[in-house]
Design a protein that fits this description.
single chain; 192 residues; mainly alpha; two-stranded antiparallel ribbon
Length: 192
């Protein structure tokens, strides 16, 4: 059992060690962010704020997952408004049953996302989020360039051994979020 003073010292020591990283991440975050107001659903707003907080504190996998979740809820809330609660994305797929890929595909088909936005969101989904959420076995004869639990672990614990570690992925994901989220939301829900 730790005393209160020991716990306070542990927090102080951790804050001291983490200060430089948080400072640089906050600087990066604020340099990328679109500061114009935007109307969004309450849930998408919460995901947005939590993704930013996770980036700031250095929770990189969570930053990636929440970035994707934030965009997913933004798109889903748009379709709930435009097609009705319990509506259908297309004639066969209920909005609530649609995954992120189906949502971004539909938004691209309807020209609600530019090609660059679609590609960035697809990259967040396919290249960053999916490998952490759908972890695959590692086989000795596997191509190590493909996602597997060992590569994901190395990207987190020893990023210097791979070309693109989890912090790099989180930086690209959060940059997409703070650069595009408000812009896309203003397109979906114009401010009058």
């Amino acid at each position: 059992m730790y005393t209160d003073n020991e716990l306070k010292q542990m927090i102080h020591d951790a804050d001291t060690r983490a200060y430089a990283g948080r400072f640089e991440r906050l600087r990066f975050l604020l340099s990328q962010e679109d500061a114009e107001p935007s109307p969004v659903s309450a849930l998408a707003r919460e995901y947005y704020e939590e993704a930013r907080l996770c980036w700031y504190i250095g929770a990189f996998v969570t930053t990636i997952v929440l970035t994707q979740l934030c965009f997913e809820e933004l798109l889903r809330s748009h379709y709930r408004v435009s097609k009705g609660v319990s509506g259908y994305l297309n004639e066969h797929l209920k909005i609530d049953d649609a995954g992120f890929k189906a949502l971004i595909d539909q938004a691209r088909t309807e020209n609600l996302l530019s090609t660059d936005e679609f590609n960035a969101l697809n990259r967040v989904r396919r290249d960053f989020r999916n490998p952490y959420v759908h972890v695959h076995d590692f086989k000795v004869d596997n191509d190590f360039s493909k996602p597997n639990f060992m590569k994901q672990y190395i990207k987190i614990t020893a990023p210097e051994l791979v070309d693109y570690g989890v912090e790099d992925e989180a930086r690209e994901a959060i940059s997409s979020l703070v650069g595009m989220f408000r812009k896309i939301s203003r397109r979906f829900f114009p401010i009058l």
